[in-house]
């Protein structure tokens, strides 16, 4: 098949890990007879430097006319002095909003060969394989009003946590759909003992559940969920939750693995292109050195192949290639204490291509 992919390398190590991804996609295209066309766009700091805007119109139109978007990372110390609303990160927030990427998917899996990196005991993490489905375009991050009122001793600040029935229903459905394709269990996380929005959320989960009789589901309060993720992460298959709870829980869950450089993410809309990116940031401390771990970005490609292109065989081949290089002991600097053996980004990419 023929697919057009928007590549937004961004800042820091973004361009390095994206180059790795395009090489691997080219190889998959060659092996399985697909044509992947790349169109490049600027986002974040690099876009500010070139155009003054972190999300130029041209980038948006490139993304909208593509079948999927691959993002490296945005941000870095160079732009940290800019006012909040002009920062590189605004480019990504704007892109999520414009592409209506309401469902953020963060899988958390343990690679047996990297288990020693986890801060948790072997018996707790063995076999952990969960997916966090986070609502991404609503809730307290976007609700109005959001403002300061009064001054001095009387000053107050207000944020608004608001969800519509339709916003909750579409993300909850995603949760059930993924649970159905996976091990058949959904945990819906809320704070229904305190929040009205959570009581609406819970009601909708109970309604939607009727359409998925083969999925077992349960409700869990967010404070309990934070504890259970550390105490017994294996109990989770799919976790669905609102924007802020998902933000916090997905960072917590990513640390179960101990390897930030390994974890992928996908953000999906109803019909338009999805956006695929590693969960790590632009890593300014190692940018330009050619030592970034490309595996989180390559793992994001497996999500692109699965969800955007419906190519499960190709996705599985790539996942197995990643497993193979790790089992053979190949490590980038972030994954090993023995720096003399560490592979560069290019070398790691080459090993994956050979394993493919
Ligand atoms: P953000 O603010 O965008 O969330 P951050 O500042 O929290 O990002 P990162 O930029 O992800 O964090 O970097 C955190 C640490 O992890 C840094 O020391 C960085 O070098 C390291 N790191 C992150 N990604 C990788 C990678 N792909 N390969 C190697 N090291 C990485
Ligand atoms: Mg940071």
Offer a few descriptive terms.
alpha/beta; Isopropylmalate Dehydrogenase; 2 domains; two-stranded antiparallel ribbon; 12 helices; 41% helix; binds adenosine-5'-triphosphate; binds magnesium ion; amino-acid biosynthesis
Kindly report the CATH topology of the largest domain: Isopropylmalate Dehydrogenase
What class do helices, strands and sheet pairing give?
Answer: alpha/beta
Distance between the termini: 19 Å
Main β sheet profile: 10 strands, mixed
Overall mean confidence score, pLDDT:
96
Percentage of β-strand residues:
15-25%
Q: What's the CATH H-level superfamily name of the largest domain?
A: Isopropylmalate Dehydrogenase
Bound molecules: adenosine-5'-triphosphate, magnesium ion
The low-confidence runs, each spanning 5 or more residues with pLDDT under 50, are none
Number of domains: 2
What topology does this entry show?
Blueprint: E1 2-10, H1 14-32, E2 35-40, H2 45-51, H3 57-64, E3 68-73, H4 88-98, E4 103-109, H5 122-125, E5 129-135, E6 143-149, E7 156-160, H6 165-181, E8 185-190, H7 196-209, E9 216-221, H8 222-231, E10 238-241, H9 243-257, E11 264-268, E12 274-278, H10 295-308, H11 312-327, H12 345-355
Parallel strand pairs: 1-2, 1-3, 3-12, 5-10, 8-9, 8-10
Antiparallel strand pairs: 4-5, 4-11, 6-7, 11-12
Helix pairs in contact: 1-10, 1-12, 6-7, 8-9, 10-11, 11-12
Adenosine-5'-triphosphate binds next to loops.
Subunit structure: Homodimer.
Binding site for Mg(2+): 223, 247, 251
Subcellular location: Cytoplasm
């Amino acid at each position: 098949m023929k697919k057009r992919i928007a590549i937004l390398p961004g800042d820091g190590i973004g361009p390095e890990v994206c180059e790795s991804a395009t090489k691997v996609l080219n190889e998959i295209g060659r092996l399985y007879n697909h044509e992947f066309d790349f169109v490049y766009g600027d986002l974040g700091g690099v876009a500010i430097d070139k155009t003054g805007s972190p999300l130029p119109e041209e980038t948006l139109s490139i993304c909208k006319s593509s079948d999927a978007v691959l993002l490296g990372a945005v941000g870095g110390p160079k732009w940290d002095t800019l006012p909040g609303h002009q920062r590189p990160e605004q480019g990504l927030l704007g892109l999520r909003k414009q592409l209506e990427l309401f469902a953020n998917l963060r899988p958390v899996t343990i690679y047996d060969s990297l288990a020693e990196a986890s801060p948790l005991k072997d018996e707790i993490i063995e076999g952990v394989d969960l997916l966090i489905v986070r609502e991404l375009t609503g809730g307290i991050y976007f609700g109005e009003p959001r403002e300061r009122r009064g001054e001095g001793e009387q000053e107050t600040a207000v944020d608004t946590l608001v969800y519509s029935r339709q916003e909750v229903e579409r993300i909850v459905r995603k949760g059930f759909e993924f649970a159905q394709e996976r091990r058949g269990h959904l945990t819906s996380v809320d704070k229904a003992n305190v929040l009205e929005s959570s009581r609406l959320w819970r009601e909708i989960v109970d309604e939607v559940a009727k359409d998925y009789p083969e999925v077992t589901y349960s409700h869990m309060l967010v404070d309990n969920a934070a504890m259970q993720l550390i105490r017994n992460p294996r109990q989770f298959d799919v976790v669905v939750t609102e924007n802020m709870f998902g933000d916090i829980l997905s960072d917590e869950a990513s640390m179960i693995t101990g390897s930030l450089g390994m974890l992928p993410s996908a953000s999906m809309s109803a019909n338009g292109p999805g956006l695929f990116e590693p969960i790590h940031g632009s890593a300014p401390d190692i940018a330009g050195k050619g030592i970034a771990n490309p595996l989180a970005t390559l793992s994001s490609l497996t999500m692109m192949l699965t969800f955007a292109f419906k190519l499960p065989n190709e996705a599985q081949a790539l996942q197995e290639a990643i497993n193979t290089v790790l089992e053979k002991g190949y490590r980038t600097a972030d994954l090993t204490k023995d720096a003399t053996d560490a592979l560069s980004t290019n070398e790691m990419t080459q090993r994956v291509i050979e394993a493919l």
